Sequence to fold (188 residues):
Amino acid sequence: MRPYKVLIDPGHGGKDPGAVAVYPDVLEKDINLAIAKLVKRCARRGDFLFSARLTRFTDRTVSLDDRVAQTEKINPDLFVSLHCNSFAEPDVEGVEVFFKPGCIESRHLAQNLLEHILGAMPDHKSRGAKPANLFVLRNSPVPAALIEYEFLSNPYMAAYLTDIENQSRLAWATAEGIEYHLEGGGII
Fold:
């Protein structure tokens, strides 16, 4: 049995599509779920210290309250929510990771995730690791981070995110970032 549990939250779902790419016609909820399933598969197949559970396995609506309730019920060591970003200007790009405000371990988790994701995407811009007063972060009873992998509003990044090889690369980097964090990486 693996010593750590991580709750992976594929953001949005069901009636909530999240960001919508103009070209190709892609919904954030689908990208989030695809990468989340791959993170779970990486954790199961790789030599990782953690097992991964998902807040949703299908395209269904899960409220923010339900996501937090699952965290309270499962009592994981970490909560990681997966998202894609969007902006009015189509040339905006970059990866950013938000963390639970006032939680040093959440900050380190976000930094470790960002470092590993950018290691898998060396040509992508870093938008940093930042505190955010987002519902699932501030109400999480455990250290929490929310990844924004790229901007679906950027057609090039939308095409990047729909590619299964890139999704696999992002999932593996996410799993490695979680693992590095659980092994004590970056914690002072």
Notes: The two ends are 28 Å apart (CA to CA).
